[in-house]
């Protein structure tokens, strides 16, 4: 079905459809009402017919009863009964039946056997016995005689004793049905059933078919015509049932409404013609102004906001035209505002990053040169945390106004939340731009009034030169951010982009990105560095160290990736891997009968994690490793970050039976009181004090004091970073317990370490 596009046509169709719907509803209501009225009249007619049938049967019963009384009162009839003159009785019965129109006249003896009928002497024939009989409310009885229904009356014969009884019968036959049809105008039928089988039926309707005995529908279809029916049960004596069905044709009841229907059709046609004309006129008056407004709307949609919508009407269409005109004006204003917001920062009103990017691309395409400057706030997060977002935004607004008033040479000043101010300096050399940027830093580094104090902010500047250091807007923006990250408060508050820093930055970013996948890619390995007991010369412990061989960059130094893991939160993943690797190796050594302690480093984040002691416990239980075989080393700086929380976790680890060590002692700021409260057993002197131990008197004093302090606190002392024999001998002479360093052995894979340990054991066994 094609879509109708014209409003006028749709309005006409809608109005006509509404009228048609109303007319259909009226027709439906009329048809329903007339149908219901016809059915009510037909039901009333059926009820009248049933009453007439009952009265007719009652009248016939009275006639038969009177005739029977007359017959039994006749002296000659009683004399014939007393003498047993059967031919005379038969003649009398026949005459009486013929006189009153009875279909049967019977004489029964005192034992109830039929002796004589109006057809002759039967001598007690069984085929004339009554098969069923039931009294009627109006008098008489209904009986089944020979499989046919009859209306019966009886009268007793006394002479003077009881000699028998006379029964007169009137058949419910086609003649009675025809009389009923004449009296009531209904179709009449008499049905006799034995169980579910129809044994006799008469009907005034030629194509009549009796319904089942259980069927009580009020509507039936016979010979293609609808009839309303009612059923009147006359006899129910199992297995016999006699009932009459009265049928009223619905067509005759509805015929009286045909004139009303024709008049309704005529009214409907006239109404449709009139409505079509009215709809055409109304649609035209509505569609023309709507078309004008649609044309104005199309011009507005195409971006032409000069077209005005005006209709000289005071109705709703006139109001619509005024609304469209107001909408046109509002859209024009909002579009201007949107265009402005798309290229400007809503807080400061300065250009935003989108506009800056566009200007950079335009300058590059025009083959111009210049310098891009980024002015970043050094303590951004601290300012927001201390003074709040609202105070910070007000400070930025004040600084933006100050910068705009003092900056006359910048082609464009932009602001990006979270980064800072950008200066676009075209046709300037790097030296000129540095002077310009330094002056801008002075404008920003002023004392600002905060809600509860005055504060001077620290700003840093990064500079990048184009096109020498970048040939696209994205590249220049990335590199100026890299440059400002290299700036430091003070004399180095200006930093120029350096390509070598870019390479280091790219490497750093790649390591940060790939570090979480190192475990999955099987790029991590564990090596073990022996710890030498300086008194016995035996190796009873080793330190597990992690190595990372990057798939593309090759070996990565631990000092490079461990710090990145702690900064990015990946250290927990590395610690979990290292713990499993240490447990697996300890399990192997225990299976070989080698009792050795393995130490591993624990980061600050691990120590702050309340679940970490539980993970260690689970690992020990899973690998069935004795707790004394594991030692955990925690740096002094990690302990000082959250002493209270660290002590709680350290105590939980100590309760497991794991030994604990303070690593890199001497590089942090822990006090003796803090050290005393820690549940540790080992103190490791940082290698920075051991490397030049034999040559530096200051280092010797520090190490000797630390050894004495640790022993006084019942702690075992480990010195790491032993690189020569002089340092080893000095430490042995001054009571250091354990030594560790490249002079003793470099970190070795597990297989090489086993061979090294065997060789070392052989040396110790042989002795000096």
Report on this structure.
There is one protein chain. With 768 residues, the chain is of the alpha+beta class. Among the domains are: 303-342, no CATH class; 344-497, Reverse transcriptase/Diguanylate cyclase domain (Alpha-Beta Plaits), CATH 3.30.70; 519-766, TIM Barrel, CATH 3.20.20.450. Helices cover 49% and strands 23% of the residues. The strands form five sheets. Strands 20-21-23-24-25-26-27-28 form an eight-stranded mixed β-barrel, surrounded by four helices. It has a seven-stranded antiparallel β-sheet with strand order 3-2-1-7-6-5-4. The longest helix is centred in the N-terminal third of the chain and has 67 residues, at 7-73. The radius of gyration is 60 Å and the shape is elongated.
**In what range is the share of β-strand residues?**
15-25%
Characterize the biggest β-sheet.
Answer: 8 strands, mixed, barrel
- Identify the strand order in the major beta sheet: 20-21-23-24-25-26-27-28
Can you tell me the CATH architecture of the domain at 519-766?
A: Alpha-Beta Barrel
The separation of the N and C termini measures 109 Å
Q: Identify the overall geometry.
A: elongated
Q: CATH topology of the domain at 519-766, which one?
A: TIM Barrel
Going by helix content, strand content and strand pairing, the class is: alpha+beta
The level-1 CATH class of the domain at 519-766 = Alpha Beta
Q: Kindly state the mean pLDDT as a whole number?
A: 80
How many helix segments? 23
| Low-pLDDT segments, ≥5 res | none
């Amino acid at each position: 079905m094609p879509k109708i596009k014209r409003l006028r046509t749709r309005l006409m169709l809608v109005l006509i459809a509404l009228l048609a719907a109303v007319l259909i509803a009226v027709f439906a209501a009329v048809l329903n009402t007339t149908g219901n009225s016809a059915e009510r009249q037909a039901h009333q007619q059926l009820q009248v017919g049933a009453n007439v049938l009952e009265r007719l049967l009652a009248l016939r019963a009275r006639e038969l009863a009177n005739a029977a009384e007359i017959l039994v009162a006749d002296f000659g009839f009683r004399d014939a009964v007393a003498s047993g003159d059967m031919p005379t009785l038969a003649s009398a019965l026949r005459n009486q039946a013929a006189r009153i129109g009875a279909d049967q006249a019977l004489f029964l003896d005192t034992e109830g056997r039929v002796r004589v009928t109006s057809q002759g002497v039967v001598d007690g024939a069984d085929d004339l016995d009554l098969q069923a009989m039931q009294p009627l409310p109006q008098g008489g009885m209904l009986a089944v005689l020979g499989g046919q229904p009859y209306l019966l009356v009886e009268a007793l014969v006394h002479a003077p004793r009881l000699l028998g009884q006379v029964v007169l019968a009137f058949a419910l036959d086609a003649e009675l049905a025809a009389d009923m049809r004449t009296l009531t105008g209904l179709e009449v039928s008499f049905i006799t059933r034995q169980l579910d089988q129809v044994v006799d039926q008469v009907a005034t309707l030629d194509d009549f078919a009796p319904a089942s005995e259980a069927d009580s529908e009020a509507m039936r279809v016979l010979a293609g015509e609808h009839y309303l029916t009612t059923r009147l049960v006359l006899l129910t004596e199992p297995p016999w049932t006699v009932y009459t069905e009265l049928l009223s044709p619905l067509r005759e009841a509805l015929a009286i409404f045909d004139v009303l229907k024709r008049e309704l059709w005529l009214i409907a046609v006239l109404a449709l013609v009139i409505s079509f004309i009215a709809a055409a006129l109304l649609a035209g008056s509505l569609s023309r102004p709507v078309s004008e407004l649609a044309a104005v709307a199309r011009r507005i949609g195409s971006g032409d906001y000069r077209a005005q919508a005006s209709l000289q009407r005071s109705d709703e269409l006139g109001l619509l035209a005024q609304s469209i005109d107001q909408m046109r004006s509002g859209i024009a204003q909002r579009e201007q505002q949107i265009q402005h917001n798309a290229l400007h920062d809503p807080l400061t009103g300065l250009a935003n990053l989108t506009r800056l990017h566009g200007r950079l691309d335009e300058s590059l395409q025009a083959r111009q040169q210049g310098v891009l400057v980024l002015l970043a706030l050094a303590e951004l997060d601290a300012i927001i945390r201390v003074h709040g977002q609202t105070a910070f935004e007000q400070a930025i607004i004040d600084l933006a106004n100050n910068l705009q008033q003092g900056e006359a040479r910048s082609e464009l000043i932009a602001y990006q939340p979270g980064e800072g101010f950008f200066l676009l300096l075209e046709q300037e050399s790097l030296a000129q731009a540095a002077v310009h940027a330094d002056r801008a830093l002075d404008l920003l580094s002023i004392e600002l009034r905060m809600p509860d104090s005055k504060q001077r902010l620290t700003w840093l500047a990064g500079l990048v030169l184009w096109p020498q250091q970048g040939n696209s807007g994205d590249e220049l923006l990335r590199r100026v951010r890299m440059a400002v990250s290299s700036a430091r408060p003070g004399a180095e508050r200006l930093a120029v982009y350096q390509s070598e820093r870019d390479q280091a930055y790219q490497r750093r970013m790649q390591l940060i990105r790939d570090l979480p996948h190192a475990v999955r890619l099987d790029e991590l390995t564990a090596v073990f560095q022996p710890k030498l007991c300086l008194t016995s010369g035996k190796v009873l412990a080793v330190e597990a160290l992690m190595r990372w061989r990057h798939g593309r960059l090759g070996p990565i130094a631990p000092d490079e990736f461990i710090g990145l893991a702690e900064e990015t939160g990946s250290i927990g993943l590395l610690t979990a891997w290292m713990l499993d690797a240490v447990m697996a190796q300890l399990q192997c050594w225990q299976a070989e009968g080698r009792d050795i302690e393995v130490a591993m480093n624990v980061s600050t984040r691990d120590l702050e994690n309340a679940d970490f002691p539980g993970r260690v416990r689970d690992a020990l239980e899973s690998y069935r490793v004795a707790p004394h075989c594991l030692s955990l080393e925690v740096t002094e700086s990690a302990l000082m970050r959250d002493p209270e929380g660290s002590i709680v976790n350290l105590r939980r680890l100590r309760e497991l039976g794991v030994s604990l060590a303070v690593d890199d002692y001497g590089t942090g700021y822990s006090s003796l009181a803090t050290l005393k409260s820690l549940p540790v057993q080992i103190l490791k002197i940082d290698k920075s004090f051991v490397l030049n131990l034999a040559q530096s008197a200051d280092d010797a004093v520090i190490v000797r004091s630390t050894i004495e302090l640790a022993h006084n606190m019942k702690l075992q002392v480990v010195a790491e970073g032993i690189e020569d024999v002089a340092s080893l001998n000095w430490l042995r002479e001054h009571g250091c317990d354990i030594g560790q360093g490249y002079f003793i052995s470099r970190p070795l894979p597990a297989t090489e370490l086993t061979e090294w340990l065997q060789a070392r054991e052989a040396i110790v066994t042989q002795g000096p």
